[in-house]
């Protein structure tokens, strides 16, 4: 069963993940152009982009636990998931800069320093940017596998920061982002609970 | 106990009136429902937001925390019959009907700017009466210094109240001089129609120089007191929401700047506008706060 699933997955080309991953963006564009957004389309665009970025981040974090727990390998799609996350995160930040803050650089600068939720969000974004620019084979070769792997462990920091950014942006304690923070912590916890050597042993057996 | 029209009307015709009102609500243009307010010199000449904007973008946590929740769920609220309990340090305490508080022939149109603490703004054509007129009618005792307000608690109809998001009922308060200021109104209408439920039907406070959350909705109790009343957001997070909540571009919310605001309805690239001290009503209200340090008493 597991082998069948993995065999099937092996035949799925990576571009299909990109195609599916850009669907939320297409829907958002469609809603924007057809007036399908609410009374405040700026907020809807900004929030939908941010949420989608977080969902792709969680998807990329789920790849390893899925392999260790269920033996299903989505490894070859992980880079696409991570880059999709960064695409949405970038558009989220861009929509904040342009539509929400209309390029008031001084006010944005002061806000980022003074507001914990913005500081967390921007820190998360900077970490994700470092991962995105090194998500290519040339970088892995150039950095060496060990250093590259260490750098990409930054995602364990970025993911909870991003979820906290969402929680702190809201006025009362919100259920949805709280739930996703728990999911992130559970996915990170699974890495500790089921370490790699054990999974290897199981695969050999 | 003061009698209102619903008390002296036979129950059967009263019920008929309710079904008539319900039918009329479907026909928004029905002249029987229309409200007219006399134009007022306090109105701004800024272009009001559309009725669609005003009735679909609301903070009314009794119906949910999303901006769309009130428009979606507030129709469950019964607003007729309705009475307001006025008590505390007043000469004539009692239960007052809407017609007592805001008689049709006293209604005024007040086109006011609204600035939310979340840094967005709208312009809204309210219909209502100055709060001072009802306070004068019930007779404020000399020892009274503050006015406390309370929203209805009815979780069967206000689904947001089934969760302890806030310490229900929603409560707010004003200093007496703020309450008596001619800009402060009790609104019963919007754009020549009775107030939609999501905007605080049937009766809400509007204090245009303060952040929107001070303007409490669906009022059931008004109490005159001699000490600063409980205020819901202030009690939940005093660092973020002061008791005064005056619009002030120099005093930031801890999580965002208040220097600018985004006007709802401005489109994708409508940009931001500068926030004005007291939301642009400084000429009228700044004197109320003379001698106060507004960065501390925010």
Structure characterization notes:
Chain A: This is Protein-methionine-sulfoxide reductase heme-binding subunit MsrQ. Chain A: It is a multi-pass membrane protein. Chain A: The chain crosses the membrane at residues 12-33, 53-73, 80-97, 117-134, 154-173, 179-199. Chain A: Residues 49-161 form the Ferric oxidoreductase domain. Chain A: Pfam families: Ferric_reduct. The complex is a heterodimer of chains A (205) and B (298). Chain A has one domain. Chain A has twelve helices and no strands. The relative contact order of chain A is 0.11. Chain A has 205 residues and is mostly helical. Chain B has a single domain, classed as Alpha-Beta Complex (Sulfite Oxidase, Chain A, domain 2), CATH 3.90.420.10. Chain B contains nine helices and 13 strands. Chain B has helices at residues 5-8, 11-26, 51-56, 69-73, 98-101, 131-138, 176-180, 232-236, 282-285; strands at 38-39, 83-88, 94-97, 108-115, 120-130, 146-151, 171-175, 185-190, 193-194, 204-206, 219-225, 260-263, 273-274. In chain B, strands 1, 4, 5, 8, 9, 10, 12 and 13 form an eight-stranded mixed sheet that branches. The chains are: A mainly alpha (205), B alpha+beta (298). At the A-B interface, helix 4, helix 5, helix 6 and helix 7 of A face helix 3 of B.
